[in-house]
Each structure stands twice: as structure tokens, then as C-alpha cells.
Amino acid sequence: MVMKTSKLSIRLLWYITPLVILPLLFLGGFTLTNVTNSTQKQADLIMSRFVEQQQQKVFNYIDSFQSTAKLLSTSPVLNDFLANDLHADGGYTYRLGALMDVFASYSEAYPDIISINLMSVNGKSDAYYSSNLSIAPKSYPFFDKVQQSNLSQQQFMMQKADGTTSLYFIQRIYSIDYYLKRPQQLGFIVLHIDPSILNTSILEAPYNNTLNLLVSNEGKILFSSDYNIRGQYISEFELNQVHNLADIGSLSTIELSSIDKIERMIFAVQMSGGYYVSTIPKAVLYQSGKAISLITGLIVIISVITLPILIFIVVRNLLLNPIELLGAASHRVGDGDLGVSLPAHTDDEVGILFNDFNHMVNQIRHYQEQLEEYKHHLEDKVESRTKALETMNSQLELAIGQAEQANQLKSRFLANMSHEIRTPLTAIMGFTEQLLHNDKITNNKQHLGTILRNSKHLLELINNILDLSKIEAEKIAVEQAPLNVVRLIHDIESIIEPLAQQKKLKLSINYQLPLPHTINSDETRLKQILINIASNAVKFTEQGHVSITVHYLPSQELMFVIQDSGIGMVESQIKRLFTPFEQADATTTRRFGGTGLGLCISKNLAQRLGGDITVKSELDVGSCFTITIACNLQTPLADNLFLEQSNQLIPEKDPLLSFASNNFDAHILVAEDNPDNQLLIKLLLQTWGLEPDIANNGAEAVEMALVNDYQLIIMDMQMPVMGGLEATKILRHAAYDGPIIALTANVMNHDVDTYIAAGCDKALAKPIDKDALESVLVSYLHLEKDNQNKWDDILKSEKFQQINANYVANLPTYLAEIKSLQFSGNLVALRALAHNIKGSAGCFNFDDIYHCAARLEDHLKSDSKAALNELTANLINAIEQVISEQSKPV
Predict the structure, then answer these.
(1) What is the DSSP secondary structure assignment for residue 229, as one 8-state letter?
(2) Which residues form the HPt domain (predicted)?
(3) Are the C-beta atoms of residues 630 and 557 closer than 8 Å to each other?
């Protein structure tokens, strides 16, 4: 079948032809223009460099003979010759001979010197030396100009009748007389020079047919590479053109009609006494460029004719023919012919298109066959679909059951949480009401201890829930820090031992040596795991023993085995053991308490520490929990010592607790705006042997910290003039690198993160916790812990009672300020005052004032005026009640 030319082929040819021809024409024109310009620029560069070199060569040549004439004029022999009367005594002949020797030595040193003539002021020759033995000239044609000029040095170019040019250098000779105001002129030195360098320079040429000229200021050709035109004059118009070209300093086209009628490219520079001119015929310069232009034009014409044809042939073979073939095959498929198959093509996109077309036809054919098969087996398909639906229904019922079970677990967990939270809250609220309303209670310390114990239990519940939420959100983080293994086990023993003693259980600690002295892990999280499981072992054991065994595994893992003789578990209970919100069974919660979160949290923490928790248990026999964690030893045999003997199992004394409290010398700055808080913090620090400096605001703190050397700064975050946050940032930018402890009533996580980001090392909450403050001082100052009873001593001390009385005496002032700010509507100042009262009231254990001030401050942060008067009235009532109670006689 002969394929006819398609319309697409004709359109493609119409598009290709202009798209190829126009760029080629543009390229050809650009090339021709560029060849001409580049030829001229290249010639301009070559000519300018050549002329500059010749100019410099001539300048150096003339400079050397000017220096020679000047040097000769200062010769001691010449001065001695001129210092005496030439014919006064008999030494004239001797002095003349010596002078001739000097002239001869200069002539030998400079072969271009033809003669040296010593002339008197009136033009008479007193001494003459010539290398060609000629006699002294009677006069020089330029001598009148020399006598009329005041220049000490002059030069002249004189052309002879035969066309050769000589150089003359004239140097005045002076006699310096110190008794005269000006030196006396004694004569002239005249050097007659054969300009060999000038002749050589003129004959050099950067191109063939180059004509070099040295033209005088009058237009006379003194030197020329064409000997026949020496001595000729160029016209005044041509001289002006040469002068202008010398000023411009570039290659230009002019015609020197005085020499010939040829159009030349000329480059000229001005020299002393004339111009140096280099010329080349324009036709010679552009001859090579014309040849390149002709070749370029020929290439463009051939490309214009052949490229469209070649492109059309290539495109037709690569695209048009396959497209036509694909169109014919598609038409056949449309008519129902599924036996079409395109031939194998190349691996390019067209080949992929052919393969996809063949695949499409095969798929259509395959689907048609399947359709026929479906028609014959429709009943089987319906039956199988019915069975699939039944299977899905059973899976759905199972999922519904699991959802209901999960809902029951959630309800049971909420019930457990409600019970666990309400139990300590009932005790806290009950004993608190008794302490507030019953003045006859005598065992206050016992009730306060009960409140504190139930508060800690409530805090543990909340921490467990938060830990679980962090684990599920994958936001809980563990760290790696050096951890002393023996000290860790002794800390666990000190916590579990009292629990075991209360239930009369035997607690045993077993070390399987060797053990690493130090591992790298998260001490807090590891303690949380071990305390949780060990306390569970004690809780679920009524009699018998609890043991903790420590092993070191070759896989660089530390293994803790906690075994008890408690109630034990069956297999079904073990499977649910690490599921959140679940315990062994419902009776476990009622009998032993707990939330069912501890083991779930512990297992997740162990996995994050590079290990795991496994359990083996037998009902009524006991349970065995195995905890493994990664040791993360960098070089286990070198940097991490192993404990090999039992006498090494005594825990080392903590270096942080090795200093006597009364002998520790530390310079501390406390930035706090509340006077009562200042006195309280100062009293605490004085109890530990520390005498702090006090700053009333952030600005004072910055100034004092930059002047003094403080080992630690305690910084309140909200102060007048400048807040603690801004002061901390300024100190860090000022290169203060000591620890800064934030002191604030705002201790939410995002607030603490803000303080740490600003440069604080730690954040302490208001009201001040003595243990937390002491822990920070121990951590950062290596301060030894003092007696735990010192806190009670402080509260009973006369100084604290005085500080407390001063604070109560200031309460009426706070009361008046609150009422004034409420009346004026100044909510910003009222919020700052509430924050100040909250911090100080908490420090002195006025809880009602603390909570009322905190609620008022939080409400003012939201910029809402609803319930503002009620919250302000509550704070006023709380302050008035404290004032009333403190005014009663004791």
C-alpha cells in the first residue's frame, strides 16, 4: 500500500521551514557583523600595543641619553677643566687630555654617541671629541634657540640632505658658588647621537605592508619605514588629523594624500618633538575577515536549504509514519477487529505507545473473554458474593463486640479513676475543712501529713495518666546520661525496704558479678520502672519474700529480675497484664487499688530504653518480672570499669553532698520585687550559710550581675521596670554563663519551656518548695543537704515570725490598692497586683488568698469582664478574713 502525503506532513513542513531559516539568517548576519567588528578590534589592539611599545622604547632611549648628558655635566674632570682659566697656566694641556679621556669613555659606553662637544656660553667649542675623528662644527643651526631658552636640558632632531636624521642633546653646565644667590652658567654639553634604536623601531611592523612614520610638529617626516619619503612634509590638514588621532588613542581610517592615495587604518601617539604614526592599508587588514565572511555566508545558504529537508525526513520517519500506522490500527479496532497487532518498535516513547496499544487490545480481548465467562457462571458469582457478605457480617459483629468491650474497659477505667481520685480528694478536703473550721484540733501535724500523703498519691495518678498520654502520642523522651548501677540499686532498696517491712516481708538484693560500674541510660525512667514493678511485688505479696537480682548480659544489656511469692496469675491474666486501664481482674482493683496503668507505662519505657519487660507467673505461687535495658557502653573494657568483687558493691558517696553547709562560700543574687518574699528567701539561704544580694527588679538584676561575680541567680519572672524573662535574655547576650533559676507562679509546661528557651537553667514554682530550692542549690553549687528539720526551725524562728507579721501588716495596703484599681477600672495594674499577691501569699501559707489571687489573675489574662467583680470580691474577703484572724488576741 503506497501511503500518500498527509496534511500533517505539509503543515509540518510549513512550520519547520521558517523556524529553521530565520534563526540561520539571523545567525549568519550576526556572524558577518561580528567577524568585521572582531577584526577591527583585534587590529586596534595589536596596533595600539605595538605603538605603545615603540613609544616606550623611544622614550627610554631618549631618557638614557638625557641622563648621560646630565651625568657628564657633573663630571669632576669637567668641573676641574672649567674651574681654571683655560690658558692661564701650563696645566691646560693636561686637563684637556683628562677631559678627552672622559669623553672617550662615554663614547665607548654608548656606541650611538657620534661626538661630544663642550661649548662656551657664546657658542665657541672649548673641547670636542668625535668617534669618527671629524672636526668640531663651527656652529649648530639650533644654537640660537638653545641660548634663548631657559631650559637646562633640550633635544633636537636634525635631518640631513640624504634623508638621515640625527639627535642632539644639549645640557647646560653651571658652577655652584655658595657666595652667590644663583649658580653661574659656564657652557653647554652637546651630544650628537646616531638614532639606531629609532631606525630599528621604525622598521618593525605588526602586519605586512605596515608603514611607520616619525613626524615632526611641523609635519616633516623624520623617520620612515619607506626610505623614499623621508624629508617629505604632510599637509597641515593631515597633521591635524594625526594630532586628533593621538589624542583619541584609537585606530581610525584616514587618507594621507601627501604620501599616496591609499585608504589606511592609522594609530598615532604624541612624542617629544613630533608624532609616532603606524599605518596599514584597510584592504589588507580586512582581507582575512572577508574570506571568513564568504565562508560563513556559504555555510548559511547550504544550511537554509538542507536543514529543513533533513528535519522533515527525520520527523516523518520518527513520528508521522508511526502516527499514521497507529491511526490505521485504531480504526480497525474501532470496526471490531481485535486481531490487530502493531510491529515491534524501538525503545523510545513511540515504541512504548505501540506496546501500550497492543496491551490495550489484549486487555479488551481478555475482558471480552471474561465477560463471556461471567455470563456462564453468574449464579456461582452470586453465591460466592453472598458468602462473602456473610463473612463480612460476622467480622462486623466481632468488631462491634470489640468496640463494646473497649467501651466497657473505658467505663471501668473511668470508674477506677473516679474512685482513685475521689479517695485522696475526700481525705484532703475533709482534713482541710477540719483544720480551717475546728480551732480545737491539736494534732495539726498529723492531719497535714495525711493531706500531703494523699496529695502525693493524687499527683502520682495524674503523672501516670500524663505519661500514658505522652507514650500514645509518641512524645515521651528519654535521655542517656552516666548512671551508677550500685547507687541505683541502693536507691531502689531504700524505697522498697520500708514497704516490705510494713508487710513483714523479706527483701533481698542479689548481684550477679561482674556488673558494669556505670551505664548510659535515663535514671529517672529506669527508677520509675523498677519502683513500679518492685512496689507491685510487695503490694501483691501477703507473706514470704521479694527479691531483686541484677545480671549483666553479653549483649551489653542489664537485666533486673524481680521475683515474689505473691498471689500469682493465670495465662489469661498475663495476656492482659500490659494492656492500659486493665488489671488481672476486677477484684484486684477493689482489693489492692491501682489504675492498671503502671505496667503498661513501664513496658513502653523499657522499650524506649532499648529493652523490654517479660513476665512468668503461677497462680498462688508467685510472679517473676524480667526487665532488660541497653547499657549503651561506648568502650566497655576501657572506660567502663566492671565490678568484680562484693566489697565494690558499697555505694559511693554522692560528690554533690560532700561539702559542709556552713563552710560553702557562694555569691548569690536574688531578683524579687515583693519585700516579704525577699525576706523569706534571704532567711532560707542564710539558714544554709549563704548571704544573697537582693535586686528589686530585672533592671537592677542585670546591672548587679554585670558588675559582680555571682555563682547563681534566682530570678522572679514578673517584676516591675523589667521582667525576669527580658533580664535573663539580656544577661545571656552579655555572656553571663552562670546558672539562672526562674522563680514564678506560672509553671505550666509552655511557660517553663519559654523560660528555658530564654536562658534559664531551671524553673521553681511559687509558693517556694524548700526541698526543690535545696535540690537546685545542691545541683548547681555542690551544697550539702542540711537537716530536714531546718524547715520547721525556720517556720518557728523569731525572724520568720517577724517577716510573717510584716506581711500581715502590709495586707491593708494591698486591700486598699485592690479596691482603688477596681474602682478606676485599671485591669492591667489589677492583674499585676494579683500576680504579686499570689506569689507572696503562697510563700506564707495563706492558701485562700493565694487561690483567690490566682483565679483573678487567670481571669484577667483572658480579657473577659464577666464575673470580674465576684472574683475581686472573693480576694477582698480572703484578705479581710486573714486580717481579722491575725488581729485576734492569742
Answers:
(1) G
(2) 796-890
(3) yes
DSSP β-ladder status, 211-216 and 274-281: antiparallel
How many CA atoms, within 13 angstroms, populate the side-chain half-sphere of residue 653?
7
Those residues whose C-beta lies under 8 Å from the C-beta of residue 638, and which sit 6 or more positions away, are: none
Q: What is the mean pLDDT of residues 38-59?
A: 73
Question: Around 134, how many Cα atoms within 13 Å sit in the side-chain half-sphere?
Answer: 11
CA distances (Å), origin 107, targets 66, 71, 129, 192, 408:
14, 13, 9, 10, 127
3-state secondary structure 347-414: CCHHHHHHHHHHHHHHHHHHHHHHHHHHHHCHHHHHHHHHHHHHHHHHHHHHHHHHHHHHHHHHHHHH
Give the span between the Cα atoms of 427 and 443, in whole angstroms: 16
CA distance 522 to 488: 11
Determine the Cα–Cα distance for residues 749 and 755; give it in Å rounded to an integer: 10
- Separation CA 424–CA 422 (nearest Å): 6
3-state secondary structure of 636: coil
- Residue 173's nearest CA partner among 63, 62, 77, 78 is 78
Query: Cα(201)–Cα(209) distance, rounded to whole angstroms?
Result: 15
SS3 668: strand
- Among residues 803, 800, 719, the alpha carbon closest in space to that of 766 is found at 719
**What's the mean pLDDT in 854-878?**
81
Q: 326-333: which pairs have CB atoms within 8 A and are 24 or more residues apart?
A: 326/353, 326/354, 326/357, 329/357, 330/357, 333/361, 333/364
Among the residue ranges 13-22, 218-227, 649-658, 694-703, the one predicted with the least confidence is: 649-658
Of all residues in the chain, what percent carry a pLDDT higher than 70? 78
End-to-end CA distance of the chain: 126
Residue-wise pLDDT for 878-890, tens only, equals 888 888 877 766 5
Summarised one tens digit per residue, pLDDT across range 364-417 is: 877 777 777 777 777 677 777 788 888 888 888 888 877 777 666 666 666 556
Which residue type sits at 365? R
**Closest among 725, 724, 710, 716 to 677, alpha carbons compared:** 716
Q: Which of 66-75, 291-300, 871-880 has the lowest mean pLDDT?
A: 291-300
CA separation for the pair 857, 851 (Å, rounded): 10
Cis peptide before 111 (omega within 30 of 0): no
**Residue 509: strand, helix, or coil:** strand
- Could you tell me the CA-to-CA distances from 397 to 261, 386, 391, 402, 794 in Å, in that order? 115, 17, 10, 9, 67
Nearest residue to 278 via CA among 217, 198, 218, 224: 224
Residue of 227, 197, 232, 194 lying closest to 215 (CA atoms):
232
Handedness of CA 423, 425, 429, 435 (dihedral sign): positive
Helices vs strands, H then E, count in the chain: 27, 24
Angle between helices 724-733 and 698-707 (to 10 degrees): 30
Look up residue 101 and give its three cell numbers. Answer: 679621556
